[in-house]
Automatic annotation (TrEMBL):
Keywords noted in UniProt: Repeat, Signal
Coiled coil regions, renumbered to chain: none
Pfam families in the cross-refs: DUF5650, HYR
Record domain HYR: where: 767-849
InterPro entries to which the protein is assigned, alphabetical: DUF5650, HYR_dom, SRPX-like
Signal peptide feature range: 1-21
Entry annotated with the keyword Repeat: yes
Record-given protein name: HYR domain-containing protein
Organism whose genome encodes this protein: Ilumatobacter coccineus (strain NBRC 103263 / KCTC 29153 / YM16-304)
Amino acid sequence: MRTHRLLALALVGTTGIITTASDAPASADISPDITQLDLVGPAGSETFGADVLVLSNGNYVVTDVLHDEGGVADVGAVHLYDGMSDTVISTLTGSTASDEVGSGGIFEVGDSNFVVASGDWDNGGVVDAGAVTWVDGEIGLSGTVSATNSFIGSAASEWVGSGPIVVLTNGNFVVGNGRWDGGKGAVTLIDGNVGMIGSATSSNSLVGVTTDDGVGYDTPVALTNGSFVVGSSTFSAIGANGGAATWSDGEVGVTGPITEFNSLLGEAGDEVGSRITPLTDGDYVVESEYWDGAGNDYGAATWGNGEGGTVGMVDATNSLVGSSDDDLVGRSVFPLTNGNYVVASQYWDGPGTDLGAVTWGDGDGGTVGEVSDSNSLVGSDNDDRISNGGIFLLTNGNYVVSSTLWDGAGADLGAATWGDGATGSTVGEVSAANSLIGEFDDDYISSSGITVLTNGNYVVNSPDRNTSDLRTNTGAVTWGDGNGGTVGVVDASNSLIGGDDYDGIAVGTQTIALTNGHWVTASLLWDGEPGKPNVGAVTWGNGESGTVGEVTLANSLTGPDQFDFVGGGGLYALPTGDYLVASPLVDGDGVDRGAITWGNGNGGTTGVVSAANSLVGTADNDRVGNVRVTVLDDGDYVVRTPGWGADNLGAVTFGSGSGGVTGPITSANSLVGTSVNDAVGNVEIVDLDIGGYLVGTTSWDDAGSPDAGAVTFGRDSLGVAGAINASNSVIGTPSGVIRLDTAATRTTSGDSYPVPTFQNRVLLMRLDREPAFATTPPDVDVEIADDETSAVVTYTSPAADDVRDGPITSSCTPASGSTFPIGDTVVTCTATDSGGQTATTTFTVSVTVAAPDGPEVVSLNPGRVFASRASDETVDDLFQGDGRIAAGDFVEVDINGRAGVADDAQAVVMNVTAINPSGRGFVTTYPCGDRPLASSLNYGSAGAVVGNELVAKLSADGSVCVYTSAETDLTIDVVGYVPSWSDVISVDPARVYATRASDETVDGQQEAEGRVDAGSFIEVDIAGRGGVAASGAGAVVMNITAINPSGRGFITVYPCGDRPLASSLNYGAAGAVVGNELIAKLSATGSVCAYSSAETDLTVDVVGYVPSSSAATSVDPGRVYATRTSDETVDEEQQATGRIDAGEFVEVDIAGRAGVPASGAGAVVMNITAINPSGRGFITTYPCGTRPLASSLNYGSAGAVVGNELVAKLSADGTVCVFSSAATDLTVDVVGYIPA
């Protein structure tokens, strides 16, 4: 609920206001984004809110360890609250003075349940028995802790609940009780969704054997697979402090006493189980550095099976062990990301003293036996102490060993050695052949550690590195290859180095890994120009190949003055891949004003720190950057400067992760204090999981209330600025100050963040979220008739809700019922809650003109629309008898509105025939304008009669231009058209394949390919070329031309794969030039294959394509009619029918054959070939009935072989008729169809 601000603040500021734990909290709006709700402890509260746990289900738990109940002091109380309503669900209390219920902590277990640990709880007269109480996170548990609802101690002073409680990855939990049964100890597994009532026994727990065993004192170790291991380093049943490590299943647990049959054991003083390292694959390693073996403290590292445990006595048959006194093998074990592990033994003696060794461990079964140079990386001199600088684990499963004291050829040269994490092949002595090493005494290579990069590579930091010209501690940073290491001597050719004595590049491990794989190093002691010592420098490094050479002003961010120590406050990696540089001692215009500089993670930021590129202080000793910067999860950041201002008012500044914040700190860009020593920002920032962040200031003074404290909300992407006051912050009262719990960032189901205080109340800072739309509304598509320009559209407004601030008002613009024009209109819907918060969502209303019903290619009865000879007639007497077309000239022919073609057709299907050309040449058909480099029809000699059926794109005015390279007569017969709304796409002709050097393709690809050999094929790339879409094309409309074949033959075009029995183009003799336009199905990769039976040159010209979504369908070529006995059809129907007589026709069945459906097809795309005609003549293809005055194919002489691909309209019964003016053989091959 929302209350009047002044009233609410008056309530908050009044002392003595008490509410019961079941009352809903009072509230007050403290900013446009956040409401403060006051949750006050009930009567008897003393530490109400000292600990708050928000469960995964959004409910939350509040403890009051010193709560008094009914006059009984300090019984303690634990309250469960509903996260949505903020009302109490249950309260669990103690019953005896000083029970202090909840003093051992509260832990989430199972599915949003929790357990309450109360080590001081008294079971009647059994003092300090202790209890662990399981509580359902939804319904809670009210009443007092008792033996009927808790897991309790069985004797006085067991203090159950004060020992370790470990929550496993499966939600179950483990309770350790080292004092059970007089000190034998017990460890009990409890179901996180049920809990346990009763006490530990040998039937439900793992227990010790002697009173000194103390099982349960050591904290059990949870494994990644849900199991766990109990370490009992003081287990003494075999020998004093021999120790034990016991594996347990995380679902059923292990019970009974520790024995050699369920545990790994040591002998007296071995302290087995003192340390256990879980591996990433669910297994584990037991580290027993004090295992004696045959001497004293040889040490052992034992691999444990995470699926069943490893049992028996520790020895060299099941463990990696040392061989000399004080080898201490097993002191340091490191789990690799791939499930293997590394054992570092810097005190291993080998043949000397403290040579040191690093041993790879097999994560699938362990590595056993003595450490040696055959299974380990080892030192060569006394006190090399290999691995003394640590083991650094790379993200790719490999590792790097830092050995700063390795001598090599001198004293303490130092080394960094890459290790193979997959097979453990890195063994033998450290040397220049396998390591990055120093050159001079006291180089201490890797003394500032090794920085692991996010891409698997690494950086070695060596601030003590010296130079050959006696410069001391110039320092170096060296990039290392994470897949094989970087070896050799550190120098300027492989490292970023300092130029002066004591530059100390990367001193103090001042190198950080960026999230994008690169790195940044700070050199605090770097000297700038002469006379400016220790200005400091920060240098970006390439994480893929390294950055080498000296640190300079040109490649680094540096300070302007001596002793600025740029980078001295630390470096911070941002989630964006960028970074921040903190330099608290930069002087600027005074002394130590400090600066925070944003750096570009993809190349670095260089230059001098200033107010132009950095956030800077405004007074001496502001020291901006002296306090840890908080990087938010969303990539932005928050800078705390509690010492800002001459009076230490303090400031907190928000910075954008994508560009930073620059200029001096002011109240305009920062949250600031109002009184001396307010020190705003003296508490860590809390990054909220619901967005935004909290600023805690414990020393802020309210009027009349010193150090009352305040908590302020900062918004996502904006932050918060201005002075702290009651309108932007939750403030403390005279009865106590606010304490911000920085450890808990989870918010409740009601979007509240609990803020504990020292005044028996919890401040719930509730983010006022905007309302939420239940779903994204779907787009609305509306079709209108072609004579309409708009539509009235109604739609259902999307529903919105707000869990807190109802009711919701919602409105959309344009509103439902509005008139929407043709095209896309974005509708924006806005929901507003009762608090004024808004949310928007959008969807699109698309109004389109409905496509007319009908086929995507309209087939027509053939109709002549152009005829140059006086003897020929056109359907409308236009464009007839105009005479031969001159060589190199063109004619423009009107198409739209003639011979049945629609007025708005985008392309025409027409048969163009050249008659008696003056010589060899070609015809190009195009949509007027610039003539393309392509041919539509080719004639091989003077006097020829050659035709080709084409799909020709029309110009804007519905005409087509026809160019001829030689003088000729022409006829043009229309047989169909492509409607304006069709998915079939016509393009300007464009050549995409050419074998001859003299021909060019539209994009320079697949040109001058050389002649096609007889009986071979070529593959032509179509998709994405010549205007054809790169994806979504199902077929191509193309003109293929055979030029100068070696003899009579044919070409078959097909979608690669198996070649069909069909022809797409036929050439009758050597030296011919024959073309044909085809609709060819594309392969899955967008290509076509062209097979030639004889050697020939080829050109392929694209003129259009058919999208896969189009109703026009391409099929693999299939023969459906053949007159000769040597030819076969796909179904053996209509084959060997005999030659067609002159002046006769045949009827060819199409529907239901060769991929054409039995019904619904309106036209067929087919290739028709005349073979050995008796003389010059033509063929007309038509839908039976009356034969039109038109030609579909022309043959110029007896004995010719001439083909043409046609779009032929089908008759009502699915057939097509073929007329021939001369006797001839025929083949008909189907390549596609067009639905009616």
